[in-house]
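Quick check before the chapter quiz. The format below is the same one you will see on the exam, so make sure you can read both the input and the output lines.
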Amino acid sequence: MAELREPTLYGDLATSVPEIRLFALLPSPQPNAPLVGQLQVVSLRSTPPYESLSYAWGAPEFTEPILVNEQTLFVTPNLDSALRALRHEEIPRILWIDAICINQRSPQERGHQVTLMRTIYSKCERDLLWLGPNTRVDQAHYMNPSEDHLGEGMQLMRGIADKDISVLGVMGHKWVAYKNSRIERSLRSLKRQQSEKDVPDAELAAQIKRREAELSATANGSGWLLSYDEQTALKRILTFPTVWNRLWVMQELSLAPKIQLVGGRHTLDWDIISEFLGDTPYADAFHATYSHESVQPCVGRMFEVVQKIDHQRRLMKEVTAGHRESKLMDVLARFRDTQSSDPRDKIYGLLGLVSGKINIEISYELTPQQVFASVTSAIINESGNLDIICQRPWTSNTGFISFTDGQEITTGQDKLPSWAADFSKGGQIHLFAQRSIFQAGRPSCKVPCHVMNGTVLHTKGTVLGQIGPNLQQDSVGTQKGAGSTWIPLEWLKLYLGCDVLSASESDHSYVTGEPAFAAFWRTLVVDCAAYPMTRITKNQVEEEDSAIRSKWLQKLNDSTDPETKPSYDDRPFVNPGILAMWRHITSDWVFSTTTNGLYVLIMPPAKEDDIIVCLDGGKVPVVLRPLEDTSGDGEKRYQFINVAYVHGLMDFGTRDSAIIREKLGLEDEEFWLE
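Here is the expected output.
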């Protein structure tokens, strides 16, 4: 935090009015002249015109002195660079800057000022996004572009958005050359195959004709391919500056009425970027070269962070007009990969983007664990379901909260509960159900949720079964490496035996009544095809089941013949969508069974004797681990491990489940999650 020579610089601010401070940066015609300014307290209800500043603090080195109200305040080198570039020569510049306008030594003031952020940034005339340069930033040169490099990137972005033919000309020629080379390469291959045929092949002839038509049409098509230098120029303003990774900036840019990117003396209005992104057919026609020389559309990658911010900006306008809501979980998930030095700011730094009233206390006197647990319960109460537990895009917590420098903290009773999301760590959703693909639990849970002592969550649900022995030698990574394509066959041998491949439909039936083999392979792909992810239809089941039975039987026969070599078509599934789903699932999941005969997919650290439960309000089943009761109240305590797939029970919450309930003897229970 900022170091003060005198503690009297900051007086108390009224919280009922409320009040903020504005910083008047005094002018100077000399760039190297000392920085001098004045703080003035104003009512947030009637502020003079001001600009806000968004920037990256950089390393916590407060080495640069500025004179504020005739007292010395030390700031970071990056802020020093920004102020020198923004200082006018003849008139003061009125700014709101967090490091200067908030007493960083006062947790109470910091907490209260955070509640005002939405209004502070909404009322500014514009937000100044400082991209650099900063000669004191400790990072590689290419990650800290010079002033001239930033100017080149802004000029290129402006030319692309304005559809300047002098900018687009060479890009267009490069795109045509790239497309032609690919089509011509395909044509040569097809014609070579045709020449090797003894008799004319009608299908090959048709493909050649289509490729020739594509070659003719390419010259009239539109598209642009950026050179390496052009890609780098755009990255210097859109990805390299560390400010794009700063969590607080996401809120600031989403709320400000106008934004101006600043790179030294060069500027670029946000509206230019936004209008380009909004011109979808045009923006999507720009391509760039990435790893392994693959050519991909550049908007979804080079503009990834900018797109997220622009989407949130558009959403906030609809929120203001009363047409949309901006939900807490959606906001936290959208910006989960951004960074903050204080893990509590992963929440506090985004609350200004949430519409409606959220019962979250903003206090830097609370531990990160307390904040994360209370926010998780607040999201449960807001949504009326357990998506924050079953569908959260954050890594499963370990009880430790991470700072950006990698430090982890936990102290005794402050350990993060297993059911609470660790918002300090980004991650991914492991079993997708947002579009009602699955509905394993009842649609809703009781709210407000009951959290005992701020750490133990009371829930209800149904135990589906207990995980049985793990028959794989190594459940972690078994499906990876050489031969991973045919891991399904190895699992079949271990758990069901190969007889089910040739068994009649009446034999070896699963609990749902379907053949065991069909239930097995449908489990391996979570009963879905991709992409987009959809449930497998009855027709797809019939077609795939017949095809892969013969294919797997053939593979069994081939495995006894050492002379058999792998072929291009050596893959376990036939349908492209089902095969794509398998490839997605195989990186994380392992097959297992429960002691009552259910087929499941689980992920480490789930293990034998853990139970699988459908919780009320959870779209997918979860794995819970029974704990010893140390509370003395006789209630069963559990640790949340992760989610699971259970074949035949993924619609347990919506379909008439009476038959399966009775068949398996399933009953509702209460659970206390620690």
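If your answer matched, good. DSSP finds 22 helices and 26 strands in the chain.
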